[in-house]
Each structure stands twice: as C-alpha cells, then as structure tokens.
Amino acid sequence: MFSNKTEFKEVFLQRLEMTCGKSFKESSKRDRYQTLGNMIREYVSSNWIKTNEKYRSAKEKQVYYLSIEFLLGKLLRHNLLNLGVDQVVQEGLSELGINLDDLEEVEADAALGNGGLGRLAACFLDSLACLNLPGHGCGIRYKHGLFEQKIVDGYQVELPEQWLRNGHVWEVRKADLSIEVPFWGKVETLEKDGRLTFRHVDAETITAVPYDVPVVGYNTDTVNTLRLWSAEPSPYLVHKDIMKYKRETEAVSDFLYPDDTHDEGKILRLKQQYFLVSASIRSIIRAYRKQFNRIEDLHEHVGIHINDTHPVLAIPELMRVLLDEENLGWEEAWHITTQTISYTNHTTLAEALEKWPIRIFQPLLPRIYMIVNEINERFCQQLWQKYPGEWNRIENMAIIAHDQVKMAHLAIVGSHSVNGVAEIHTEILKKREMNSFYQLYPEKFNNKTNGITHRRWLLKSNPKLTNLICEGIGDSWISKPDQLLELEGYQDDPAFLDQLFMVKQENKIKLAARIKEQTGINVDITSIFDIQVKRLHAYKRQLLNILHIMYLYNRIKEDSSFTMYPRTFIFGAKASPGYYYAKKIIKLINSVADKVNNDPVVRGQIRVVFLENYRVSLAEEIFPAADVSEQISTASKEASGTGNMKFMMNGALTVGTLDGANIEIKEMVGDDNIFIFGLTAEEVLDYYQNGGYRSFEYYHHDKRIRTVVDQLTNGFFEDVEDEFEMISDSLIMENDQYFVLRDFASYIDVQKEVGLKYKDQNQWLKMSLLNISRSGHFSSDRTIQQYADDIWNIRPVNKRPLTKN
Length: 805
Ligand code: NTF
Description:
Layout lengths: L4 H16 L8 H30 L3 E5 L3 E4 L2 H8 L2 H10 L4 H7 L3 E3 L3 H15 L4 E6 L7 E5 L2 E5 L12 E2 L5 E5 L2 E7 L2 E7 L2 E13 L6 E11 L8 H10 L15 H25 L6 H4 E6 L6 H12 L4 H11 E4 L10 E3 H7 L1 H21 L4 H7 L2 E2 L2 E3 H7 L3 E4 L2 H11 L1 H6 L4 E3 L6 H7 L2 H11 L20 H26 L8 E6 L8 H17 L8 E6 L7 H18 L8 E5 L5 H7 L5 E4 L11 H7 L3 E4 L5 H8 L5 E2 L4 H10 L4 H7 L1 H9 L13 H7 L12 H16 L1 H13 L6 H13 L13
Helix pairs in contact: 1-2, 1-4, 2-5, 3-18, 6-32, 8-10, 10-11, 10-13, 12-13, 19-20, 20-31, 21-22, 21-28, 27-28
N-(trifluoroacetyl)-beta-D-glucopyranosylamine (NTF) binds next to helix 6.
Organism: Robertmurraya mangrovi
Protein name: Alpha-1,4 glucan phosphorylase
Cofactor: pyridoxal 5'-phosphate
C-alpha cells in the first residue's frame, strides 16, 4: 500500500472513512493522523511478527534494556523515515491537500523521561533495530509524562502532561500477557526435602499489563519491541477497601517522577521500580522458558541491562525467580544472575545516588529484602576474606549499612559489567567514586561513550542539511555515519559552503518564526544563535550564561563605542518542581530577557529568549538552527552530555568546559574547531578536596563580576527586589560551589573569541562543516555496537532488506 502514491491515497481514503465514520471532507486533522498512524502500525506488524519468529528460531542471544524512562518524542515521522515511505506518504497526502507537517503537529510527544538518561534509552532502541540487533526495551507506561511547563510572569508553572488523552496509535495492549506483581505481606519459610523454601504470602498484588510499541529499524525488516507496563487493579485480589486499592494501584503508573537527580524517597517510587523489574524479568523468563529447557543457560541467551540504578531490583528479582521458582541453589543462581545483568552509571552527583531506608524497603518487598540481605552478607564475608580487619573499608562497601540499602553497590556486586558514559566519567568512577569497587573488580569496569541517533537528530530534524550532505557524498553515510568524514573534501569548496550557509539560514528562519509565535519576540536571523537547552541544574551553569549576558549588557550601556557581533541567546530548560534554586534561575533568565529586549540601547546587539516547555519535538527545531552550543557545566560534573553531540551534528560550534563528552568532541575536531574555557576536572576536584577557592576574592577583584553580582540584589531588576538574593548568596555566602565566578573571566574571553571568529563567515563555515563531518563517531550506532560486542555479546539476526507488503 506504500509502493506508490496512488495506491497509498486509495487505501488511506478508504481507511479514513472506515475508522472515523466520516467522509474525507468532514474529517479532522486528528482523524487523518490517527488513520495514517494505524496504517503504518499495521504495515509494520508483519515484520514485527517475523522478527520475533526469527529471534526465536535463530536461538540467538537477546538483550532487554530496562529503564524507568524512555523519552521517545513523536514517532510518526521517525517511523515513516525508517520505513523508507516518507516520500510516498508526503506526496500522496499532498495530492489530497494534506500537509504531513500539520498531521505531525497533532501527535503528542511521548515524554516518558526527564532528560539525558531517558533520551539515551530512546536513541539506543533506534540503533538496536537499525543494526538488526535483538534488543528490546522494558519500561513503564506512565499515564502522564514529564510535566508541561508554562512560563507565567517569568516563573515556571507545571501542568500535568496528557499524552494519552487521544490514545497512542503505536501501542498494542496485550492483556493476556499480564503479570501479577506482589507487594507487602510476609514471607513464609517451609522445609521441603531438607531444604528451606520461601513463599511470599498475604501480598497485595498489582496487575502489570504490557503495551507493546514496535521499534522500526532503518532500511531493514527488523522490528524490535518496547514493552511498557501499565498498573491496573488485580482481578484476583479481594480487598477490603476496593476504591483505595484501585487508587493506590493506578498511582504506580500514573506519573513519571519529574526529577533528574534527587531521590524523592517515596514509597511510590520504590513501588514503580519493583513493578517495572518484576513484570519485565518474569515476562523475559516466561519467553525464555517457551524456547529453552535449561534455565542454567539463561545468561547464554539473555542479557539484561539496567539503565542506572532505578531497575537494580532486577538483581534480587532474578535471584528470587531462580531460587524460589526454578529451585536452583544460591551459588548457581548467583552465577547466572551476575552473568546476565550489566549496569550503566549516569551520574556522580551525590544527590542522585539511590539509597532506600530498610524501614520502607523491607515491609514493601519482604522476600526481595531477604535476598538483598543474603547478597550483602555473602559479599561482606568475601570482603572480610580479602581485607581482614579493615572494618572501615567493609562498612563503606557494604550493600546494607546504616539502615539503608545502597542501590549502586548492589548494581556493581550483582552484575558483570559496570560502565560510565564518557571517558572522563568512567575514569572518575574508577579513581574516585567507585574506587574501592574498582580495586575489587577491575575487570567489570569499562567505558561506553554516549551517542545519539543521527536518524532523528539529523535526517528527521534537519532535512535540508541531510539533502545537502547527500548531494555531496551520497547516502551511504546514513547506514555508516563515520562516512560523514567524506564531507571534509568540501572544506575549500565555496559553493558547498555557501549552501551550508543557506541551510543554516533557512533553519534559523524557521526557529525565528517559532520564537515569534511562542514569545512574540522578533529575532534577527543574521545574529549568532547562541543556545543552551537542557534540564535546569546548578552544575549545568545556566547562571554563568545569564550573568555573562548581564555583563555584555552593562558593557554596551557604559561604553557607546563598544560593539559586538549581534547575538540571540536562546534558553530552554525545565526545572524539577521542587528544585527552588533552579526555578529562581529561570526567573532570572526571564527578568534579564525583559530588561535586555526592552532596552533600545542594546536592541541591535543582544536578544534573550526563553522558550517554554523544552521537549524532544521542540529540540528538533532548535538544534538545526544553532550557531553556538553552550556546554558549560562545572568540569567533572556532567557525566557525558548528549545535547553537545546533537548540536555538533547540526553544525553548531561548541563553547564548552573540559567535561563529559566535550573532551571527546574536542579530540575529534581539534583545538581550533571548538571553544574551550574554564577549570579542568582535576582542578575542580582538587579544590573540592583541598579547598583554596574563595569566590569572594573573584567578586572583590573583578569589577565585571562585582557589578553583575550586585545587580542581583540592588534594584537593577526593578519589579523583583528580593527575588535573586538566594542566587547572590549561593555565589558569595556559600562560596560558589559550581565555580561560576572562578570561570567567569575565561568565559568572557572565549565568548569574545566566538564573536570575532563568526565575523569571518568563510572560516566559520569551514569549522562548522568539520564539526558535522566528525560527528559520525557520536552516532549511537557506534555506542550500541560497542555495547553489543563488549558487554552483551549479541549479534545481528535479521539481515534481510525490507520486504514491501
Ligand atoms: C545524565 N544523567 C547525565 O547527567 C548526562 O551527562 C548523560 O549524558 C545522560 O545521563 C545520559 O548518559 C541522568 O539523567 C541522571 F538521571 F542520571 F541523573
């Protein structure tokens, strides 16, 4: 039905009438979107079935990526592109007077994630399918994704997100594959044939209902599965207060925790984690059991990856299944479990290290707690053998200590691989954060630098640049992104560089229109688009960026002869609702924007824009239009970053610290094609360890700093007098934990250099082209191939090219 547009049109019209019960003329955009979505999903389903059959018959090892977040965004366009039917559909619709872009607007973002960690999971799913690797996702089908952000009077206001309001065309509910997940109750111990057996009784069970979403590969017939679990009241449970039970049950998959790094410490969060893990593990084992006889070989055929510690209960849950249901002995179960599980760490921020008080953990998950306790006892005995008498070391490494369960320790002990997400991050884990574990298990630790799918972040989001690249070097880079390197042949080709310039201008025009629509602000598309989009967090230092803008403002105001290349500073960021300081920074950005945008003196030179509700679909409009990418975290704090890679791939130049993957970007492009400033990670960590930083001295000695810091509290922002005291205090009274003032001068210098370099358009375009050409390394195809080879030991199964049906 997609082989030519006439056939497509015919089927589309027929289906539209059948499913909506309306004539074409009467149908709404939503009807049309829904019809198209359903057609695509059905088109995919025969390959979906075939892929699963092939995985079963090939008896190849399969991997399950467990993640509490999958930040998918929209799927329609992405699926059309991967299926290779984008063109046919677009043309067919257009003949019916329908614009595909308009239909895409109707689709809600699937925002089942907060930021980097969840988006990485989505990129990984795409790469797995594209590389024909047998790898699937397991997550939670939150009824409400990440909150919707509104800016009211400069303040962030949160509204519940409603992506399921009109249903989700991509999912298939599979109620017959539901699983009962038990909570509370107690454990009964029985002796059977001289062996102790355990039974979880009096439990309150919740039904986990799977919704499967097909994950379509590019130019292949592989269709993997993302299985999202929804919590529903169990039909088997008799409860004395049925309404309460229903409420509490559904709460488990109601909301995604809008929290990037802080652990809320709530029972509900732990319930969500066990819910995901128990349903996933048991459905994995059920599928395995249909295919294989020997449970002892599980790790030969199944890999289970845990995305950060949120799904770490996979370890005791798998142990429980092997011990209590499969009747294996401890040693054997432990061997299988550790060989099956692998773990990625995504942050070293102390606030993000999950710890659960026993008083919460034990009653909620009594059998799981027993198992964790046993794992801990055995682990401590092993430590005692190796480090006799070293009480301190053992206490620090224990999984349970001070009435808490330490999830990261459980993850390291119970898995065969522990990886960080950029070289420097892995080194910091090995040398510092997890050093004692590294000494014990050096062989477990490895690095896998993050990547992004170039299919969404270039092909889909930047079709103009994609076309230009294809005109230059053909299209085989789409399957082998390293071939983007061939673009370097065009470095001295003025006609090609001109076209590159035009593409950027056109993308800037589009973004300018979006800015106008959302904020009413007119921006100059010949100005430098200097962009910082990511979650709002103190360590990411949006504050450094906005204070620098205040400095430029002051500079222009005090010296009429001062000129700079005009710049539009664009921000997009959500703050966790309970993160008061981050919300203050949002207010500050908006206050500066008001001040700057309404002052005729600076108008031609700086503009400041805060785009509300930053999300995947908005990001797709932003990256293609960027000239400058702000990656300015305090060195050592950003584990990797992935926005940095998306900007680079779209030809923006990075202004960044030597942090996370910025370092590897710099190694790729060379010192002349990136703007590096600020303290190194070594220097930052040295300050933390040995002291010696006094922010007051930087305030005192640098008038530029003094002025902007004073402006936070001296009435400079007329309408909001005490608003920013907290920010000023963080910089001076609290000694500026994130070294904003320490890096300020160096940031001013590097930003000045950016302005000068941009003036030489030809040089800038060359640098931009070089960034694009070297970005292939940061495709998640490279990352996933490394996971497949080094950690999971899986191979491609489904090599046949797409069968058109
Ligand atoms: C994030 N971590 C890191 O902060 C980013 O640097 C990294 O790029 C992504 O993970 C993906 O690896 C988190 O989102 C979390 F939840 F761990 F804080």
